Predict the structure.
Amino acid sequence: MLNHQDLMARGLAKLNEIDGEQGDKVMQALADISPDLGKYIIGFAFGEIYQRPQLDLRQRELVTLAALAAQGGCENQLRVHIHASLNVGLTRDEIVEAFIHCIPYLGFPKVLNAVFVAKEVFAAKE
């Protein structure tokens, strides 16, 4: 088992690999209100969960996009993870297709919300 410092270092490296500047923005936004939440995100989510070898980063981001779309009300996190999905090599078509695939399971309203967030992220990247 890794110590706290090692988890944080490993997690920060993975966060930067996946999210680039978007990850830094999330961490900066938490710094003045809940730095501990930022530490949990880095140490647990990125230091442990994202390190597991069974899924690659593209697969992990597809799962994350579907989970966020399913919850609804997660538009800010969808923005971050759509950026991350592009950073790890998913195409715009793959991201949109993943949302379309969710229609029978989530319904049109949640998928429409996710697709409109994707449209916003894609436009900002142009």
Observations:
- The chain is about 80% helix and 0% strand.
- The chain has a mean pLDDT of 93.
- The longest helix spans residues 108-125.
